[in-house]
Specification:
The chain is α/β, with parallel strands linked by helices. The site of adenosine-5'-triphosphate has 15 residues, from helix 1.
């Protein structure tokens, strides 16, 4: 399968906005297998709004859980058991961008984290990282966890304002590649995202396999 998995150092750092830009740039598909919280706009709704893709390019979530908490708890509240068998990757005719939930060690059940699922899928992982204070620690820890499971790491997608030393430190100490940096967009819509993504990333780097 061509495509990649998008994870991040934490929740709320911009994975969905980045994934919308990436899926649009690849003219691909987007899949959020597990969505916790349905009251506000879901991640899939956001990608439909921002990617510029036809709505059917956003695949239905496998698990739609009502409460905006960690998936293991949201599933428990809804009386649902998340089963790794339900998280088989769909085969698509164009690149598939898959977004996890929160960060790598987010539990899907009390026995299984997203990291376990990424390890099973084995497709290249994009790690989204903030550029603000605290990110060096979070990002280097995430890289260690990815490498400990032998998951192919495609590189880091930074999100936020430029912070040259922080980026360099992460890339040097983490021995990985910079995929680009998506700045904060004061006006965020499908046009501004498409333009920003095209000027800050090379979509071909996401189809190359891991660096
Ligand atoms: N590049 C950006 N420019 C402007 N706003 C952004 C950008 N990236 C993210 N945001 C805003 O920040 C908020 C969080 O972003 P987003 O939903 O993409 O985070 P996330 O990492 O996917 O969160 P979750 O862990 O809940 O899936 C949203 O309100 C989003 O619109
Ligand atoms: Mg998201």
């Amino acid at each position: 399968m061509r495509g990649c998995f998008v994870t991040g150092t934490d929740t709320g750092i911009g994975k969905t906005v980045f994934s919308a830009g990436l899926a649009g740039a690849l003219d691909g598909y987007y899949w959020k297998p597990v969505q916790s919280g349905l009251e506000d706009e879901t991640d899939s709704d956001v990608v439909r709004r921002l990617s510029g893709l036809a709505p059917e390019r956003v695949l239905p979530e496998r698990y739609r859980l009502n409460t905006p908490v960690s998936p293991h708890l949201a599933a428990h509240i809804d009386g649902v058991a998340i089963d790794s068998g339900g998280l088989e990757l769909p085969a698509m005719p164009a690149p598939l961008v898959v977004e996890g939930a929160g960060g790598l060690m987010v539990p899907l059940t009390r026995e299984m984290t997203y990291l376990d699922v990424f390890a099973r899928w084995r497709a290249p992982l994009v790690l989204c990282a903030r550029t603000t204070l605290g990110t060096i620690n979070h990002t280097l820890l995430s890289i260690e966890a990815i490498r400990a499971r032998n998951i192919p790491l495609l590189g880091i997608a930074f999100i936020g304002e430029a912070n040259t030393d922080t980026e360099r430190t992460i890339l040097d100490m983490g021995q990985t590649r910079r995929l680009g940096r998506l700045p904060h967009l004061p006006i965020l819509n499908d046009d501004t995202l498409r333009t920003a993504f095209a000027s800050h990333f090379d979509a071909r780097n996401f189809l190359d396999g891991a660096a």
